[in-house]
């Protein structure tokens, strides 16, 4: 693997859909120590002065953001479960945002679509995103594809991502993501941030 070189002033860490409910129950996250690795990476990013951002999928009461043709979220709307509107209510407390860090609520899978995240990144002259989270086949995939089209430099932190289907995770990180991003390990990113 090539050495990772980051311009810290133009890099952001995106902790995407890092839900406590998922990260503490899905074997792919628990068995691989995803929470512990992410906590270490978050600390390294903060210590390096790198912008740290978060996203979580949330909706208003009654789910007005979900249309009848939306297969991804239509079942959630029909389920009758109460909507959660504040992203801070679902982000894993071990990686809770600090004062001043950007946390956006999103209404689609992609962290950049229809949110203020891209605006915040561009306002801070960020051109490199280090992405991790749940699910590899959801927010990570969708955001990588979209962010690549927006010309961001991308790093996917493989050992800080998880998915309910480990085979899909392996396919995406081994075969698909390398077409649009560098697939890296958290220890290598931490070393780059310390340098």
TrEMBL record:
<dbReference type="InterPro" id="IPR000868">
    <property type="entry name" value="Isochorismatase-like_dom"/>
</dbReference>
<dbReference type="GO" id="GO:0016787">
    <property type="term" value="F:hydrolase activity"/>
</dbReference>
<dbReference type="InterPro" id="IPR050272">
    <property type="entry name" value="Isochorismatase-like_hydrls"/>
</dbReference>
<dbReference type="Pfam" id="PF00857">
    <property type="entry name" value="Isochorismatase"/>
</dbReference>
<keyword id="KW-0378">Hydrolase</keyword>
<protein>
    <submittedName>
        <fullName>Isochorismatase family protein YecD</fullName>
    </submittedName>
</protein>
<dbReference type="InterPro" id="IPR036380">
    <property type="entry name" value="Isochorismatase-like_sf"/>
</dbReference>
<comment type="similarity">
    <text>Belongs to the isochorismatase family.</text>
</comment>
<feature type="domain" description="Isochorismatase-like">
    <location>
        <begin position="11"/>
        <end position="187"/>
    </location>
</feature>
